[in-house]
């Protein structure tokens, strides 16, 4: 009916309306603490690629320039990167190469694993997606055949009869060869012959290749043959360890700060956590003790291990990284008996498997000196073939080379003067190998099969 009033209830004046109460910030839960631990310990792992290369700005600019010219100018480049262990060489390369992953073919070689020419060439063939073409042949390819196949793919020409048997398309995409532990790939004349053959591909007008060699040996150029050495004068990038405590603090802050909101972590807790980190590294005692530690140990991985150890304690009771807890972890790693922890973090999975199998072999045979053949043909080969099933770790020459490296680093002791297959080795008397392996089994990158193998006698 016209003129009738609305049936909706009238609202009270704004002055009389009650303000909606702001709910208090929700308290962090055990899941917030767990997610924070996972996030930060992940940043401390050797496989993590940081968002910023702190302390590596100059060498990364040099590497970036070479990589960009390879892409934009379609030129071939050879870059040699040297620096002490733990200075960030490999991390820098991963970060710089990462931005081109969708534009290039990346072939990763490692001197610790690819000590055998045939295995190195098989890896290259796999990366170039040429394996299907090898299956069309009725015989196993020789090393020479594999080189011809790679030549066909990258240069598009060959005078060999293999050319008539396989129709390999020319690869036009840029190719990056990333060679870690480069010094182990050129330790003999025969190894340098393979490298020289691959480097020759850079002369082809149809190929666009970039070789990135990473080495801890600053004198590596002296050890190269003249014909190989001449190729490694194009770009030399030297990476130096952390120089001052302010750079170290920037790295640790970047590792610990949660700069972006994370759906898995309570927002108010994230803000409070960041404030705590800023307060921690503005404390003069913390800065002074970090500076003292830096004078003794300047490898980035060492301090990331300190962070991971401290963050592992975060839970409902210890919700923030306090000064006391951080300094406890720093002091623990500074102690002499925790040099073993750094040693474990510095060795790779293949070396861990060798040490574990050697320890068990010595225990089983009840003797301290073990030959390489006893190790490889017995415990090592049996374990890897039954449990691990990782082909590159079962390669005999790679295993022998890793043993020699463990001896050079004094993790193992050579008994007598025999070398090669006849090498005799023992575990140094002062080394608590069970303790080392127990720590190693807790590493995040330690495969489950190796953890079980180690724990079966330690427990």
From TrEMBL:
Keyword flag Ligase: no
GO biological process entries: DNA replication initiation
Keyword Nucleus applies: yes
GO-annotated cellular components: nuclear origin of replication recognition complex
Biased composition (Low complexity): 1-20
Annotated keywords: DNA replication, DNA-binding, Nucleus
GO molecular function terms listed in the Swiss-Prot or TrEMBL record: ATP binding; ATP hydrolysis activity; DNA replication origin binding
A Pfam family: ORC4_C
Disordered: annotated segments: 1-29
Subcellular localization, as worded in the UniProt entry: Nucleus
Residue ranges annotated for the AAA+ ATPase domain, each copy included: 75-241
Family: Belongs to the ORC4 family.
Name of the protein this chain belongs to: Origin recognition complex subunit 4
Species of the source: Cavenderia fasciculata (Slime mold)
């Amino acid at each position: 009916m016209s003129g009738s009033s609305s049936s909706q209830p009238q609202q009270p004046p704004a002055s009389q309306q009650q303000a909606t109460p702001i709910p208090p910030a929700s308290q962090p839960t055990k899941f917030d603490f767990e997610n924070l631990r996972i996030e930060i310990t992940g940043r401390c792992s050797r496989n993590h690629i940081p968002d910023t290369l702190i302390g590596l700005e100059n060498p990364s600019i040099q590497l970036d320039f070479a990589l960009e010219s390879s892409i934009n100018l379609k030129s071939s480049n050879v870059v040699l990167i040297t620096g002490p262990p733990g200075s960030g060489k490999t991390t820098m390369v991963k970060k710089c190469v990462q931005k081109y992953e969708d534009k290039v073919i990346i072939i990763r070689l490692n001197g610790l694993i690819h000590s055998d020419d045939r295995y190195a060439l098989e890896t290259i063939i796999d990366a170039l997606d040429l394996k299907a073409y090898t299956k069309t042949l009725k015989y196993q390819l020789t090393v020479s055949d594999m080189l011809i196949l790679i030549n066909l793919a990258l240069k598009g020409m060959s005078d060999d009869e293999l050319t008539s048997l396989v129709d390999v398309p020319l690869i036009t995409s840029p190719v990056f060869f990333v060679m870690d532990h480069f010094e182990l790939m050129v330790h003999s004349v025969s190894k340098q012959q393979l490298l020289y053959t691959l480097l020759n591909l850079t002369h082809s007008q149809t190929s666009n290749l970039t070789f990135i060699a990473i080495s801890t040996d600053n004198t590596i150029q002296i050890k190269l043959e003249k014909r190989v050495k001449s190729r490694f004068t194009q770009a030399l990038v030297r990476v130096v360890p952390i120089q001052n405590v302010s750079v170290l603090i920037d790295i640790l802050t970047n590792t610990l700060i949660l700069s972006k909101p994370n759906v898995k972590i309570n927002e108010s807790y994230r803000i409070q956590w960041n404030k705590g980190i800023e307060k921690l590294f503005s404390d003069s005692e913390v800065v002074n003790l970090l500076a003292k530690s830096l004078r003794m140990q300047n490898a980035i991985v060492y301090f990331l291990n300190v962070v991971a150890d401290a963050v592992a304690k975060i839970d409902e009771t210890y919700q923030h990284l306090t000064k006391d807890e951080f300094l406890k972890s720093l002091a623990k790693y500074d102690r002499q008996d925790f040099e073993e922890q750094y040693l474990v973090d510095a060795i790779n999975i293949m070396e861990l498997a060798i040490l574990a199998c050697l320890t068990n072999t010595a225990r089983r045979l009840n003797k301290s000196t073990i030959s390489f053949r006893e190790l490889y043909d017995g415990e090592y080969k049996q374990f890897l073939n039954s449990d691990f099933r990782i082909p590159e770790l079962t390669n005999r020459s790679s295993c022998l080379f890793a043993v020699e490296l463990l001896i050079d680093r004094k993790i193992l002791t050579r008994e007598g003067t025999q070398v090669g297959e006849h090498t005799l080795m023992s575990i140094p008397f002062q080394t608590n190998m069970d303790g080392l392996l127990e720590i190693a089994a807790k590493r995040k990158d330690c495969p489950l099969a190796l953890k079980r193998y180690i724990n079966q006698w330690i427990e």
